[in-house]
Amino acid sequence: MIWTKTHKNLRVVAALAGLGALALAGCTSSAASDQASGAKAKVPLVVYSAQGYDKAMVAAFTKATGIPVKLDDNSTGPLLTQIEASKNNPNWGLLWVDGSTAFAGLDQQGLLVKGYEPSVSFNSLGAKNIPPDKSYVPTGVTLAGAMVYDRTKVTAPPTSWAQITGSQWKGAIGTNDPTQSGPTYPFIAGMMNYLGGVSAGEKFFTRLKANGLVINPTNGPTLQALTTGQIKLAFVQSSAGVGAALGDKKLVVKYLDPVTMLPSCIGIDAKAPAAEQAEAKKFAAFVLSAQGQKVMQSGDPTGDSLYYPVVDGIAPLPALPPLTGVQVQFIDPYKWGSQEAALNTWFVSNVIH
Amino acid sequence: MAEPIAIEGLTKVYSGGATALRDVSLAVDPGTFLVLLGPSGSGKTTLLRSLAGIERITSGTIMIGGTVVADGRVHVPPDRRDASMVFQDYALWPHLRIRDNVAFALRRRRVSRAEARVRAEAMLARVGLGALVERYPNELSGGEQQRVALARALIGDTGLMLCDEPLSNLDADLRERMRVEISALVREAGATTVYITHDQAEAFALADVIGVLERGRLVQFGTPEEIYTAPASPFVARFTGLSGELGVRVLGAQRHGVTEVIPAPVRQAGDTAGPAAGAPGRSFHARSPFDLAGARDGVVMIRPTGIRICSSDDGEHHLAGTVSDVAFRGRGYEHAVDVPGHGRLTGIFADVRASRGQPVGLRLEQAGCLLYPAGSEPPE
Amino acid sequence: MTDQTDFAVRAPASPGRGQRRLAWPATAGSRLASARLGKTVFWLLLSFFILAPCASFLALAVAPRLFSQGAQWFTLSYLRQTFTGVTALAITNSLWVSCAAAAFGLAVGFPVAWLAARTSLPGRRLVAGGMWLVLLLPSWLPALGWQRLVQPDGVLYRIGLSSPFITHLIMGPFGVVLLLGLRSVPFTFLAVTAGLAGLGQEFEDAARVHGAGRLAALRLIMPILAPAIWSALAINFAESVSDFGVAATLAYSSNFPLGTYQLYAAINNFPPSFPAAAAMGWLLVAAVALPLALQARALRGRSFEVLSGRSRQVVRRQLTRPGTVVAVAGVGLFYLCALGVPGFGAVSGSLLGDLGGSFSLTLANYRAVFHEGGQFGPLARSLGYGTITATITVIGGFVAARFLAQRKTKATRLLDFMLLAAVALPSVVFGAGYIFAYNLPIMSTLGINLYQTVLLLVIAYVAASLPTNARVLVGAVSQLQPSLKDAARAHGAGELAAWARGVLPAVSRPIVMAWLLTFCGTFLELPLSQLLYAPNDPPASVSINDNLSTYHFGVGMAQSVLAVGIALAAVAVVLGGYRLLAPEGWRRIGGTVRG
Which residues on neighbouring strands pair with residue A96, listed in sequence order? Predict the structure, then answer.
């Protein structure tokens, strides 16, 4: 048989078409497997989570209920990006991150399941954080803008917010970049809320910047700046601060009055198939149950497990400073969430650079 | 103004240890056309580059126009030697138009820009490129580029002109035309010229004197006629055009530069043991311009003019063989003849065609046969 | 007077008479149909995987509503926004830093190339190999090495040599320029070396003989190198502007915003905004495309190629004693900064504990990489990605190179332009385009569900590497004589055998080189990996950067060192394997690219 150029070109075509077929196969296979598993076995629940104890929770949930879970553990930013990017054809079933403003934003786009009320009794912290249309559920509370310092180096820490713009703290204060650190925007919004509005807040932060405010990307680097002596006061998320204090006995966590609430929440994808939504509800209920709360408190003992529970009858881990004597501020995520982009941009342009 | 050249004991050793030139000495009068002839690796390029000053010498002296331009200590840089050069690869600067390429050579004459351009265009017109002055080198053919290089070398009216195998990159018929051009233009300019080639026909056609180089040594220096009729060694003879070589035994004494010899077949490679094949052949006379010093065995270098075909059974022939190849040359035929015991002799001319495989006789003429002692030099 | 027309003959090896294009004969007759089909499929794939994603993403900047990313059908507000605030700062930074880096690259690369090509510099054979090594490593690796060295609580601090001056110097614009500049040196080196190859000694000799002094002769021949110099500057600039590695590591840690990272941040930070990212994409593409286009236009037509088979062997200039010392010291200093210092920073960083502040070496980090879950997996994963990508890309690149080597038709010119544009496209823009395009409604309608799958990541790798690969192979393929294959066919070989025996050996070396280039580029690739990786399956670069951003410096550095080790081992295996297994004749071809 004579191999002609026809055959050679056909081979080239076949190879290239094969590549294209692979591409198409990728899509159909995932779709098909979803349908197939839906018909026979349970639909896997896709969980997007940024929480440090999510792996432990997922394992416990699957063990308790037999529902398979596909966990995508990442930081909040990339998770939100994925949700934003794929909103025409979402892959996720349940989102579990810190910060209610993100959920408010998703709700305003109609991406969340509304009206879900788990049958659990919330304490005062929890009740405050339930939105009117019940599009998301709080699972725990940390505090934004907790103050951390080294007691051997700082003997007279400030006792109010006004004091930190004083000259004695010049160049000694550090916090995070709100575009990269989720827990930081609530701190900024909380200050603005407390001081009476956006412009008052902007003045405050501008004064801080003039006083030599040091910005680092996230909790970790800010705390590192504290331990290496670059800054004397770090304003970070409470769980990160307490976790650092657990490791280094010289560190102290103190809350200036008022401190802003930062709830971790669960929201369910409105476009997910009904079976998956049902599973997601079961997951949320499990998290809020006594068993789930135990997992939450043991899954990341130096990090996210250091939260204040929102459910009655569960006590916070002993390392956490008590909330007595401190006013815990609630900010409306719907009001402040919509301004996040603008305020973050203001902050980056005026305070960071 | 043409300059005389004097080279004394020139030696060049490269840093790797290779010796390119060994103790070369020669002298030429002003206005002479000297051709350096030799195979590749013989050192002619090195000698030329040393004259130009782009190569430093190891020892010896070079004098141009009576001034020492190079010896072991002194080295006059090339831009101060009042020479010009035509390169084998033309070396035209690709980013300059050919007019500017040529005009560059007038810098050393301190000629104004405008004047230089005018003179360059005139020179280009002389070499036949007047219509192409605005072109870039890569837009011209090989022959045209060579003419530009020539124009550049001539325009400066330097005392010494150096040519590095300028025709080797050209087609055969173009080569011949360009050779005539170069010869005419250079002699018109009257410069002392040193010209390199490995083509003996070209060398003979152009030269006033020829220097033959072999492995870094100057083995003969003389006019083309001298070199052709009395090559100093078998190497020079081979390099200047042979039909073949014949092993011989010396029969008589050397008398007035002529000796009688008889072909003595040598064992061919691959011959089985036993006496050498082929008939011994008849004796003949060969010229021996140099002293044979009583050698018994010799080798005769046969010029194409010294051998012709005759019938194999008329008793006039000195050798007998079989035609192995015939080539039509327009004005006759050249034959290659296999002679048992002596190998293949080529370039044997005849008006009439002998066919392949035909047995023929070969007749040797004294004028074209040169005798050297055997073993005077290992064959190439 | 001679007759000029008689001299219009075919000149052999006519230097500079345009390169003789060895055009592959256009297919004819009955084979036309399948050839057309092949070409159509190729163009379809090209459009699908390269054109469409980028075009739809860039369209977002002005028409966000088109893809439901905003309210307006047409708006210039996003483009306007990029000229304000941080993005303007970032783009400005990118532009001036890239200019400085390009100049630095030229200032260092040119002398090194000259020394290696034209003088008796000792160790000059190692210089070229070293340059390839610098090129193969991604830009973020040396950046991390430097950073780990000088950062507060870094290696220098641990040794007790910390200097705030050096820290501020490196962790700032100077450090960014230094790193991008060091990265530009190999590009300059390659461009200038190629230019020098075409610069025979005879040009300088001719000038000297005809009256020019040493300096005047150099001035005369410099313009012959001009195309190489302009190419080097343009490439340096383009590579620096589109660089993501230094932007995401050193520049980010130093709070020095650069364009590429800003684009990434617009997508990945709070809250994500695709139109804003797309507007930045426009600026980045313009910043990269403009110099390349100018350079292409400036060089068009004026071929300074004077390669002839008889170019004289260049006589190397002997350096004097002090000259040699200075030259070696200078070249050594370059390699020290490009490889030595970051290597030291990375290796020592991997041997130090994260806490403690002392300089006590430990292998704990390496143990963690091997025993802790999720630390070695990314390295193995990237190894796989790199191998698959390189193999597919080399095949596709060869096919594309064959199209490019054909007679210049409109189609091949278009392909040439598109591939050049794709080379210029920063990976960040490319990746963002993929995220965006593969989440469009039409994709789910078609049932294509590739976002966040490994398949999409590999496709992105292939699509991003193919243009460069094709251009690398074009040189070798266009020098292939079509008669090689015909000769094999005429002497009895079947189609497949004719290709395998007749043609491929002649290009085996360039193909192996192209494979290695793509492999190393993909193995340690950052921007596409960062944007498109499948959740829970991070590639090596993502895992390393994650570790570093969560302050696990030691493990991150250990992973980096291991990654480099694996990459070098792979290179050694492939080259060694080729050396041992390929018939000797294969290796001799293609060694020198000169005609």
Answer: A49, A266
